[in-house]
Amino acid sequence: xxxxxxxxxxxxxxxxxxxxxxxxxxxxxxxxxxxxxxxxxxxxxxxxxxxxxxxxxxxxxxxxxxxxxxxxxxxxxxxxxxxxxxxxxxxxxxxxxxxxxxxxxxxxxxxxxxxxxxxxxxxxxxxxxxxxxxxxxxxxxxxxxxxxxxxxxxxxxxxxxxxxxxxxxxxxxxxxxxxxxxxxxxxxxxxxxxxxxxxxxxxxxxxxxxxxxxxxxxxxxxxxxxxxxxxxxxxxxxxxxxxxxxxxxxxxxxxxxxxxxxxxxxxxxxxxxxxxxxxxxxxxxxxxxxxxxxxxxxxxxxxxxxxxxxxxxxxxxxxxxxxxxxxxxxxxxxxxxxxxxxxxxxxxxxxxxxxxxxxxxxxxxxxxxxxxxxxxxxxxxxxxxxxxxxxxxxxxxxxxxxxxxxxxxxxxxxxxxxxxxxxxxxxxxxxxxxxxxxxxxxxxxxxxxxxxx
Length: 453
Known about the structure:
Elements: H1 2-28, E1 47-54, H2 61-73, E2 77-84, H3 87-96, E3 103-105, H4 114-120, H5 142-145, E4 167-179, H6 180-186, H7 194-206, E5 210-212, H8 220-241, H9 251-265, H10 271-274, H11 280-288, E6 292-297, H12 301-304, E7 316-319, E8 331-340, H13 348-357, H14 361-369, H15 385-391, E9 399-401, H16 416-421, H17 423-429, H18 434-450
Parallel strand pairs: 1-2, 1-3, 5-6, 8-9
Antiparallel strand pairs: 3-8, 4-6, 4-7, 4-8
Helix pairs in contact: 2-14, 8-9, 9-17
């Protein structure tokens, strides 16, 4: 009897263990993969993913198509897409009420500085783990698809803590755009140094043409970053963007200030009046009408001005910033947009899956049709026409400049654009002197250094 009871007890325990294993497996086992490129086997069912994306010159249709593909591959998932040219005004009120998008595509450097505000307030989710995720529908990790350097920048790792908070999206070599047809017609060479730039400015002025314009002062971020690299290389850039004490009293800093101040003297006079988010295309039109030669911009300019009138013989030209001295390094800043997840987002896991999908071949092809190019390995090799010229700038002697000012604790009423770039309008109009600008930079830099995270 004792032997029989022992056998029954062993059998009962075995069945219990088997049942427990079976229950655990069925509750945690992912569903079968849909097999679609956009899909993921672990997509939660019956969820609404809120995606908010800035509408730029690339348009909003590409986002609609990407979101539709993600929905189709993830049954039960609905993507609620919000796009607008002034996205901050649309999503800002709801976020103040506690209703956050799950994914936001909005770059730094905009006038409203919403992304910078989230960075300063520690309101962006750490997405380092997304880099180790496998791209949905593919057999490669996200980090292996993103081109080198893009996830090592302060634009993606704003706290310098080795973690990634913002995903690099559409990138654009930034530099000086111009009408190559005008220079060919006049027999003028593209300046290789700033001394040559001033010589060209004098020739153009004699013919009633301004040397320079800019869409808004916000475009001076990419310009000034590249200028810092040109004046002092990566070491100076790193010290300056981390507000090192005394850095703005150096010879390299003086070179940067002097060049911008002199460039203001050669700027088309009507530029400041239109240097805002409503009228900036009027400044860009100055180049198309041969009223100004150079303007800082990014590759999106071609699509943005595609329907605009232009001078006979117009064709886009693009160059890196001139060197400070003959034979010196020339730099083109690589500006890129960012996608991120608010720390208060409701569906964070699904949001991470969506960001991983954005680097799939399927999504990249959809974006590329609209001219939005991501920093995906090998993608630039497929480009043609103007884009091939723009994205080959780093193959033609220019060096890439990356990074931005380091994030700090929030200081009410103080941001880098208002201190470093907005004063350019006043330099052009004569309302501020170069020294006024320098004094403001030095004072702000001291405050920001003390507030470094």
